Amino acid sequence: MIFGKTLVVTGVSSGIGARTAELAVSLGADVIGIDMKEPAIASSNFIKGDLSNPAGIEAVVRQLPKRFDALLNIAGISGKVGTEATLAINFYGLRAFTEAVAPRIREGGAVVNVASIAGYGWRANLERAKAMVAEKGFPDIKAVMAKNGVSNEEGYPLSKELLLLWTQKAAHEPLFKEHGVRVNAVSPGPVETQILKEFRSVLGDEKVDSDISRVGRAATASDIAPVILFLASDGARWINGANIANDGGLEASINADVLGF
Ligand SMILES: NC(=O)c1ccc[n+]([C@@H]2O[C@H](COP(=O)([O-])OP(=O)(O)OC[C@H]3O[C@@H](n4cnc5c(N)ncnc54)[C@H](O)[C@@H]3O)[C@@H](O)[C@H]2O)c1
Q1: How does pLDDT run across 44-67, given as a tens digit for each residue?
Q2: Which H or E run includes 224?
Q3: Which of 9, 13, 14, 215 best tests ligand 1's pocket when mutated (most atoms within 8 Å of CB)?
Q4: How far is the CA of 12 from the centre of ligand 1 (A)?
Q5: By the 8 A CB rule, do 7 and 68 touch?
Q6: Based on C-alpha coordinates, what's the Rg of the chain?
Q7: Ligand 1 neighbour 245 (Cβ under 6 A)
Q8: SS3 108
Q9: 73 CA to centre of ligand 1 in angstroms
């Protein structure tokens, strides 16, 4: 159900994006990969670009075909470089890029956003998330942070909270809904990729090890890729505005603690 489709994959040069692209190609899809780093295996279908600012986004959009079937938003950073840069790539850049290319996605197509268990707090921090998602386009992120009392340490979880809220909103926005384009999210727990080392320094070993010990191991990119492709496929045609926890049971375990069951 992915055979013959054209998928645009961001973050294609490493980790989850690289594995997702490899699996998609093996299943007969065409992949157009985007990343700021070169991929390990050179590809004629690769666009080098920086999706964290309007000019970089525009340059990538210009090189994309007029029509494709799905956008897989996988590129992301850990938060180590501070909140402004993290929100720029993980949320505001992702959203600006998605809105720019939405009209090119064929009817019946999909957007898949890779969020995270780190965005679990979106309900607890709902008012802040609503205010920050309500900022249109690519805002002055420093000003948005000041207005919402955001610190320089909370960029990663905050970026994923905004992404989870926006995924649900976008599913009902005319830009997607009226064109038959579904918008969903996948939320991994810890995954053995480059970024996990940085999470250890940003979130602390204790938090990462506690998450891993709740479910027995960290995921590999191969645990995540098939679920991303499922959401992009026709098999998920009735799934819209959803977040799939793809974390070995981590969210269920945290829910049990937080909700007391
Ligand atoms: N690894 C984990 O533990 C984990 C857990 C939950 C969610 N995630 C999410 O999964 C996604 C993929 O992460 P990963 O684990 O594969 O990490 P990774 O570091 O291996 O890959 C991320 C890729 O995104 C690219 N990228 C970063 N900034 C970019 C930009 N401005 N423009 C274009 N490309 C850019 C990087 O060059 C890199 O190739 C991220 O959104 C991350 O937040 C990861």
Answers
A1: 899 999 999 999 999 999 999 999
A2: helix 221-232
A3: 14
A4: 9
A5: yes
A6: 17
A7: no
A8: strand
A9: 9
pLDDT (tens digit, 9 = 90+) per residue, 225-252? 999 999 999 999 999 999 999 999 999 9
CB 246 within 8 A of CB 188: yes
Q: In the chain, where are the structural domains located?
A: 6-259
CATH superfamily of 6-259: NAD(P)-binding Rossmann-like Domain (3.40.50.720)
Q: In whole angstroms, give the CA distance from residue 181 to residue 172.
A: 10
> Which strand (E) or helix (H) includes residue 131?
helix 126-134
Please tell me whether residue 111 adopts helix, strand or coil conformation: strand
**Residues labelled catalytic:** 156
Going from the Cα of 152 to the center of ligand 1, the distance in angstroms, rounded, reads 19
The one-letter code for the residue type at 131 is A
* CB 190 less than 6 A from any atom of ligand 1: yes
Residue 216's alpha-carbon distances to 190, 211, 249, 250, in angstroms, are 11, 9, 10, 10
The answer, as to whether pTM is greater than 0.70, is yes
Q: What is the mean pLDDT, run by run of 10 residues, along the chain of 261 residues? A: 96 98 97 96 92 98 98 97 98 98 98 98 98 97 98 96 98 98 98 94 89 97 98 98 98 97 97
Ligand 1 atom nearest 78 alpha carbon: 43
